[in-house]
Protein 1
Amino acid sequence: MITQEQREKLRGWFAGRLPDDLFEELVEVTVDREEITVVGRIPGPKVAEGVSDAEREAAVEGRIQEFRERTRETRVGVAREAEHQFRRKVSWGVECAGQRALFTHVAAPVMTRLRQPERQVLDTLIAGGVARSRSEALAWCVRLVQKHTDDWLAELRDSLEHVERVRAQGPDADQD
């Protein structure tokens, strides 16, 4: 867990390091133990007025793919620097015309031990066609919890940042 100040410094590093013409706006920089995800806004494609939703969606997908290919070398160079400095993998994503797309990103394995009632929940999701495996079912459950508990998780993160600030002021702070 990193502090808000560390998160702001990380975002500032990317804001300063990214070429000015890469994104219209740096939308989000998120970080965890394994990965930094950088999401920027790119301009939407120009389409004729009154085109179908399918055509508009295809144009946005085409714009995202074009951006990904055209900027690959630049993004890889920045990622190498960041990975060396911050010791985390860097992933990229864009927002374009209200659609968000993440490029190759880390899918970190997480081990857990579950009792039978918990395994039965996962197996029910598999039987119902929601997931193909226990791993996929567990990821589905985590996304569901994440979707419905943003406020609670934000409060918990704030509390953890407070704990980190207090620890940093403690008697062992100078031993680093």
Protein 2
Amino acid sequence: MPDNTASCRGMCVASGMTVPAVLQAVLFPFLLVMVSAWDIKKREIPDSLSAAVALLSLLRFSPWNLAGAFTALPYLIVAMSGSRTAGIGGGDIKLAAAIGIVLGLPGGVAASVMGLSAFIVYGLTCSCVRRLTGRAGRAAYPAGPFLAAGAAATYFMEIGGWII
């Protein structure tokens, strides 16, 4: 029977990744999928999932990554200036901070730009379809899946060697 542990270590060494880096590369997208599914289903992001995402930063810790939490400031400003009944929620703010801690400040900004760009396109498309079909009023859309998609894209660009 082959020794899977040794072959995994061999692949890590060959690719230049450490075991914690590989573990983070597996768990980060898994948690982002969980966040997305939860947000789509319940329209909220549990603190426990955001905390789990943030804890993944410990697998490849760098003090500079803590600055990535500042990527949540624009979300906080929008939430504080908007109405209480709609808009960005606390879960989105915490998720943005957690993603920023994992990716660092440049990666967190890139993830936000990509995720929010996709979210805006989606929201505008849905809004146009609603108007064309005669449905008036506002609709709430989950932002978590778009933030997660931007984070996953940024993360895999970073570990793939693309400079963000």
Protein 3
Amino acid sequence: MTRAEATDMPDDGALKTPDRLRRRASRLLSQLSTRSDRLVNEGLAQADARKWHYAVLASLEDHGPDSQATLSRRTGIYRSDMVGVLNELAERHLVERAPDPDDQRRNIITISAQGRRQLRRLDKVLDELHDELLAPLSPAERDQFVQLLTRLLDYHARTS
């Protein structure tokens, strides 16, 4: 530790973050996003899943069978990566692929009964992880936080 770092440490040994950094929403969101990603990735890995597995299963459950291209747009998974994700899910019998009767060049993906059960398990895992992530907030604050994040994301999605 350098002398400058040592002088920036309070009695409890933690580094002080400059106030101007703690007031920057972009920095706070970035840091929270990093912690959230780590927490979710590690938690889902313990359940033998990845966040992209959850995204595909959730999309299929909410919107029904769909093409790989539409799943890619809905989930934000690059089309080139979607094939690998679907291969993993199909190997685990969580989704089924079938040729599109209207266009034999593409497949229609459907969530299986086993995929629905896995999605319910992953919902529980993510609920617990979100409880951990949002532990300092009351239920009302959690709802408000999610509403505000959704509003920000929707706004920027429309304007970009």
Protein 4
Amino acid sequence: MAKKSKKQQQGGTPATVALTAAGVAFTVHAYEHDPAHPSYGEEAAEAMGVSPDRVFKTLVADVDGTLTVAVVPVAGSLDLKALAAAVGGKRAAMADPALAERTTGYVRGGISPLGQRKRLPTVLDSSASDHATICVSAGRRGLEVELAPEDLAKLTEAVVAPVGRA
């Protein structure tokens, strides 16, 4: 069993530990997760009182056999063709949820684009640059992190492309 760092022992997640280590400015928002809510992302936006176009969900897709992360607004959906094109692929489909959980180290509804077990190619929807800050999962249900989209793109080495649909 892996030994937890001091930050993780104090309640940090791999995502918040990665942000702290990188020296990036961020704010953590915690809220009470309701397992009956139909949408993790919409629940986060409502609980934090933040517009759904500023709260981004982390989705894992399979692009030509390579797991790829897409970060898109919770107010919309992922354009799989655009995602494939953004990473130079031909076909994309949503990844098996169990495989996404095993590969990232996070549970569905709490997958963060940061601090993943295995670094995956990442695409951040270009609408993120319309905002000074955006919110993404901090690594567990009921926990979001707010940061500048440029910092998220830099830390995840993301391609920024229009992959979200309203």
